Amino acid sequence: MQKWMRNLIMIFIGNLLLAIAGGVFILPNQIVSGGVNGIALVLEPIVHVPVNSIINLLIAVTFVCGFIFMGKEFAGKTIVSSIIYPVLLELVMRYLPSFTFNILIATVISAVLVGFGIGLVLRAGASTGGMDIPPIIINKFFHIKVATILMIMDSTTVLLGFVFYGPVKVILGLISVFICSRVLDYTLISK
């Protein structure tokens, strides 16, 4: 199989796992997470700008940085990934039932799916189009593991959300961040 086709399949499967995690587990249970969504939720009451505007700004800034530091092939694959995800999320939310029976189980399952999904997308030489771009750039220049940087960034976001989410959601969010980073690290290391 040609490399571009293999990469496209990995990007698709990775985004499908992310969409399942989001549509079946994270959104229905309001699981606190990092990434652009988590940052936007924390910033919104501080800067009084709508969440969608903050998300769009963060995505645009990280994408431009990815293009500048990682090149146009990375940017092209990231655009494909960014287009696939919302379509898959919409399909998942429309056709799959949400899992709201046990938030701890939902947290663990979603963290595994997100870690593996992001790992597949990164192994294909792309990004999901959000806050995984800064760790990729940092890894390129300083050789710090992407999973470690993401864990620090996402943990910080979750902890900053304590005021808005409360202690239970923050603890579950930290559990999610830890599991996700371990699975991501494993996915990136195993070839």
Automatic annotation (TrEMBL):
UniProt organism field: Copranaerobaculum intestinale
Subcellular location: Cell membrane
GO cellular component annotations of the record: plasma membrane
A Pfam short name: YitT_membrane
Keywords associated with the record: Cell membrane, Membrane, Transmembrane, Transmembrane helix
Topology within the bilayer: Multi-pass membrane protein
Transmembrane region(s): 7-27, 47-71, 103-122
Taxonomy, superkingdom: Bacteria
Protein name listed in UniProt: YitT family protein
PANTHER family named among the record's database cross-references: UPF0750 MEMBRANE PROTEIN YITT, UPF0750 MEMBRANE PROTEIN YITT-RELATED
Signal peptide residues on this chain, from the entry's feature table: none
